[in-house]
Amino acid sequence: MAFIKVQKVRRNNNGIIISGSAAIVETQYAPSDKYHSKHTVRERLGKVLWLAADKKSGIFESPTRGITEYNASTDTFQAVPSDDPRLKQQNTSAAEPQIHLVFGDVFFLLTSMESTGFSDTLHNAFSDRSLRERLLCHLLYDIARDGGHISCDDFHRKSATSLLFPDIPAPSLQKDTVFFSSLEQDPCKAAPFQPYLSKLQLDSCQCKSIYDTILGVARALIEHSLQADGPSLSEVLGKSSSIMCTLNPNGQIPVETPNAQTKQMLDALGIECPSHLDPVSFVRPF
């Protein structure tokens, strides 16, 4: 169950919100915790612009979505028109705020896929670039979300994958029945990945479909590349997802400098975060 957690919300004498931030928080079952539950932040909503009296919905200036409305009861987002009366008394800029995209998790996963040789196997199995890129979008989503409740199309909109694979419309990833059906009709696609099952000690019973097999191999290779006494895959994804990138009007894509803790982790993994993203060269190995 998701709810909106607000912090340091301040209002002026007219009751208009002048500062404060919010995040979407989920309550998850945790049998080892004292109250058998824990709260985890699923998404940071950014600056609070308007908040309903019951705090179940609001309008926010999100770092990844721009100005957007979120409803916790239905767990949905929707666009907010510039003339929305709830924003009339807000000091919002006439221009849409600059959108930041999550870069670090996808950067780590693609870098790991290349270093482990997974990218070569993927390229050999899927010669069609559009099919290969669509598969990558789903693989990156399923690994990076790490059990989080976010749809593939929503993940793509907020992620650097939207810059790396611009030919894939986000809405087409929502269900993608045609893609998964066509994938399962070609057993030869799974053949290059079969040798990894025994090598990585994967349970073939859990790989019930071709996609499950490819996903299981990708995740296991990345997990095996991490040091036994180092951070887990979940920890790496959690920290690296704090690294954002931005598409500038001039077409350049600067990447934010990782914070000290994240940089230390990447250094230990032998990974150097770039200062800019060049989508063409970045996805060339794939």
What do you see in this structure?
The chain has 286 residues and is an alpha+beta fold. It folds into 2 domains: 2-97, no CATH class; 101-282, no CATH class. 34% of the residues lie in helices and 21% in strands. The protein has helices at residues 104-115, 118-125, 129-144, 152-158, 161-164, 177-184, 194-199, 210-225, 233-240, 260-268, 279-282; strands at residues 2-11, 17-29, 37-51, 57-62, 66-71, 76-79, 100-102, 244-246. The strands form 2 sheets. Strands 1-2-3-4-5-6 form a 6-stranded antiparallel β-sheet, with no helix packed on it. Strands 7-8 form a two-stranded antiparallel ribbon. Helix 1 (104-115) crosses helix 9. It is globular, with a radius of gyration of 21 Å. The mean pLDDT is 86.
Largest sheet strand order: 1-2-3-4-5-6
- What proportion of the residues form beta strands (DSSP E)? 15-25%
What characterizes the major β-sheet? 6 strands, antiparallel
Secondary-structure element order, as H and E?
A: EEEEEEEHHHHHHHHHEHH
Distance linking N and C termini: 37 Å
Number of DSSP helical runs: 11
Described by the principal axes of the CA atoms, the overall outline is globular
Tell me the total number of β-strands: 8
